[in-house]
Amino acid sequence: VVLGCHQGAIFLSKSTATRMSFYRIKEFLHRCGSYLDFGCIDYCNHLDISAEKLLQSLRRELEKKKASTTRTCHSHPPGAMIIRRETAVFVNRFHERLEGELETGRGLHIRDGNSGYERYLLDFAESRANQSSFRFS
What is the DSSP string of 10-39? Predict the structure, then answer.
């Protein structure tokens, strides 16, 4: 699950959602042997941030106090939903991977299941309506 929306990288804002989407696209292109030339794209240089700066932004996202929300759009097969929790150790799986790649040690305390926090702020879950239909069928 991505922060913001899947088109976040095209908005060119300085938001964490946009920067994360852009970073992931840039990372994919690099793995495929393609590199972006920021010398000719002045208006989006602010998106080309280091992994360390992106981690700082992701950690700040965890500090934002927002009520839990759910969304059921774009679900295939039907019945899945996206959940945003109030608190968690990582924003999403990408955040966890990035912390691991930089060997920050963040989240090591949750591997034994004793952290008291959910693992991901953004995650997939089965919708309540779908859970009840499974229970009674």
Answer: GS--SSHHHHHHHHHHHHHHHHTT----GG
